[in-house]
Write a structure and sequence with these properties.
single chain, alpha/beta, Rossmann fold, ten-stranded mixed β-sheet, two-stranded parallel ribbon, 11 helices, about 30% helix, globular
């Protein structure tokens, strides 16, 4: 998740597009969000309103990762498929290359990760526009994202906590762990250590809100070499402090053979869930399946591990029933645990190809050793 705000404007080129643009937009199911008031972060807006959506429908804000765009992330994750089935609306803020050459949200930048500023303010303005236009239920607005999008989901939950009922962070970082490029790499590498109180205070200082706080679900692969999985623990500690539930989970169990930790409220309902996808690299956990309930498509950073994060996130939000998951053993037997689907043009794992491309670009720019 290298997220660098450049001091230059990138020039479009065929080579650059092949290197950083996802393979195809042929499966683009999203529409363009009509121009909205206030866009200090210079973001693009995409939207999906299923035919089954009614006035008072829930809204899920979905934030893509580096090298991706909204359409590719939707196609891989299956969010619009799920929206068709259950009638909720999707908003996809989309990064532009002029802001970041790798299409990362600038989650660490003080110009973009504070209330009323930059990209965070643009996303808030998009939410307000969709809420007004579509008659969204203000009590059922949620946010999720992968990698830089996961880090930006942390930002939105911290700086506008009054908006969101819940959020889900995939391969992301805790809010406030970085305030510059060098700190961003330390944070991603798991070298930014803070205790739960300090992590919680960073969120408290980010807005005038004093609770109640959004519920949070956390997903991370144990073999993630891009964003160290210790960041998942930091996110859990941050929100455990805010919810005043203590640093240790109330329950430990497994879902599809993967460890899950749960912190519950006084009513016994989950406030925080943390999934550790053992053996998985950097990406979103998927269970594409082969029947009428299939969801998503395996590919670069879209990893078939027999567990659908999209489905479980929607269930955690309370907008879809809990999906069934294949056992991890069945997936491992198929040889797909922690790996992306093969790409016809290359024998390499596409997740590794994309990661190598990112690292080469950063090294060439002198931003990574």
């Amino acid at each position: 998740m290298p997220a660098i705000r450049p001091s230059f404007r990138s020039r479009p080129s065929g080579k650059g597009r092949r290197a950083f643009t996802p393979a195809t937009d042929a499966h683009d199911r999203l529409g363009d969000l009509a121009p909205w008031r206030d866009n200090p972060g210079n973001l693009r807006g995409r939207i999906y309103v299923p035919k089954s959506a009614e006035r008072g429908a829930p809204l899920v804000v979905v934030l893509h990762g580096c090298t991706q765009n909204a359409a590719v992330y939707d196609h891989g994750s299956g969010w619009s498929q799920l929206a068709d089935r259950h009638g909720f609306i999707l908003l996809f803020p989309e990064q532009q290359r002029v802001n970041n050459p790798l299409l990362c949200f600038n989650w660490f930048s003080g110009n973009d990760n504070q209330r009323g500023m930059g990209e965070a303010a643009s996303i808030k303005a998009m939410i307000d526009a969709v809420r007004k236009e579509q008659g969204v239920d203000p009590e059922r607005i949620f946010v999720t994202g992968l990698s830089a999008g996961g880090a930006m989901a942390s930002v939105m939950l911290a700086v506008y906590p009054e908006i969101f009922a819940a959020g889900a962070i995939i391969a992301g970082v805790a809010y406030g762990c970085a305030s510059g490029v060098a700190e961003a790499f330390d944070c991603m590498g798991g070298r930014a250590r803070s205790d739960s109180r300090e992590l919680g205070q960073r969120v408290r200082r980010a807005s005038p809100h004093r609770g109640p706080w959004p519920r949070v679900q956390i997903w991370h692969g144990s073999a993630d070499s891009t964003v160290d999985d210790s960041n998942a623990d930091a996110i859990a500690l941050q929100w455990a402090h805010l919810h005043a539930v203590g640093p240790k989970p109330d329950r430990k169990d497994e879902v599809a053979s993967y460890p899950r930790h749960v912190w519950t409220g006084a009513d016994g309902k989950p406030l925080i869930e943390q999934y550790n996808i053992t053996g998985m690299a950097h990406g979103i956990p998927l269970d594409p399946g082969t029947d009428e309930h299939e969801l998503g498509v395996a590919g670069a950073h879209m990893l078939d591990v027999g567990l659908s994060s999209t489905g479980h996130i929607a269930a955690f939000f309370g907008i879809a029933p809990l999906p069934e998951s294949r056992s991890r053993g069945a997936v491992a037997a198929a040889g797909s645990l922690g790996e992306a689907a093969p790409v016809p043009s290359s024998k390499a794992d596409p997740s590794s190809f994309v990661q190598d491309t990112i690292e080469k670009a950063l090294k060439k720019a002198g931003l990574m050793k």
